[in-house]
Amino acid sequence: MFYGQMSHPHGQTAATVAKSPPVTDNLHTFSPIGHLRTPFADKFGIPRQPSLAPHAIATLQLLPPYDRPEAVRGLEDFSHVWLTFVFHQTAGQWSPTVRPPRLGGNQRVGVFATRSPFRPNPLGLSLVELVGVDTTDKVTLTFRGVDLVDGTPILDIKPYIPYAESRPDARSGFVGGAPERLEVIFSPAAQTQCAKCQTSHPHLAELITEVLAQDPRPAYADDPQRVYGIRLYEFDVKWRCDGRSAFVESLDTP
Ligand code: SAM
Questions:
Q1: Is 126 near ligand 1, meaning CB less than 6 Å away?
Q2: What CATH superfamily is the domain 183-252?
Q3: Ligand 1 site, residue 43, Cβ cutoff 6 A
Q4: Cβ neighbours of residue 144 under 8 Å, at least 6 residues apart?
Q5: Residue range(s) in the chain whose domain bears CATH number 3.30.2310.10
Q6: How confident is the model at residue 176 (pLDDT cuts 50, 70, 90)?
């Protein structure tokens, strides 16, 4: 099923190209250029796409032999970059169809029609804001709005080029627009706990609000009494959800 009949450089039509022998499947190995340090200690609760939690700040210290300051020369002139990474916590668990949370978790679509982590090659791609390039000692980059678990192996960084890549009028299938947000309400105890770590984590309350506003519950969950836990930094944030409001009850330190 071809949309439009693409002509092939050697005069073949897309249909004949599809009949050509498959490319020999040789395996490639990649070595991470670094491991991303993020606020998300485990996968549950991470926003499903980047930029949804602007206070999800992450750092990447480049590993030898890639940690050459000249390798990032000029990168500071770009505001956003693409991170190519490994879904290392789901590697090897691919499925031809998956059930996206945006479809309520019970409708299956092809894995290639989603951004699911359960892919044949567990490669991910996130467009994030670049907020710092530090080459004074090591080469350390700082990003904002990440959707990756702490320790995610990063394979590549590429600058975002709006004229070539921004397509605001593109069709986006079942995804539609940004997900509806929950109102997030802190208990007095949780407010006090956030205030106490203002020095070590100055934007913790904002991060909690941005993450819970995404309603990270499993798609089928709707028990207002059920208390969920999300690990952010060293905190175990305990919260409930009732209707369109999330209630932050406490921040426990395990
Ligand atoms: N923006 C990326 C993309 O499109 O490839 C990621 C989208 S994916 C839906 C985002 C989810 O991947 C997060 O909510 C989290 O549950 C999961 N995730 C994040 N880091 C991961 C990792 N290192 N291994 C496996 N899953 C991960």
A1: yes
A2: YaeB-like (3.30.2310.10)
A3: yes
A4: 54, 55, 56, 57, 58, 128, 129, 131
A5: 183-252
A6: confident
Q: Ligand 1, residues 112, 123, 147: which to mutate, most atoms within 8 A of Cβ?
A: 147
The answer, yes or no, to whether any atom of ligand 1 lies below 6 A from the CB of 125, is yes
Question: Under a CB-based contact definition with an 8 Å cutoff, are residues 214 and 53 in contact?
Answer: yes
Asked if pLDDT for residue 42 goes beyond 70, the answer is yes
Centroid of ligand 1 to alpha carbon of 6 (angstroms): 33
Answer whether residue 23 shows pLDDT above 80.
Answer: no
Tokens 């934007």 sit on residue: 203
pTM of the model: 0.89
User: Span 34-165: which CATH code?
Assistant: 2.40.30.70
As given in the structure block, the two tokens for residue 38 are 């993020």
* pLDDT at 40 (0 to 100): 97
Stretch 143-170: mean pLDDT, rounded? 97
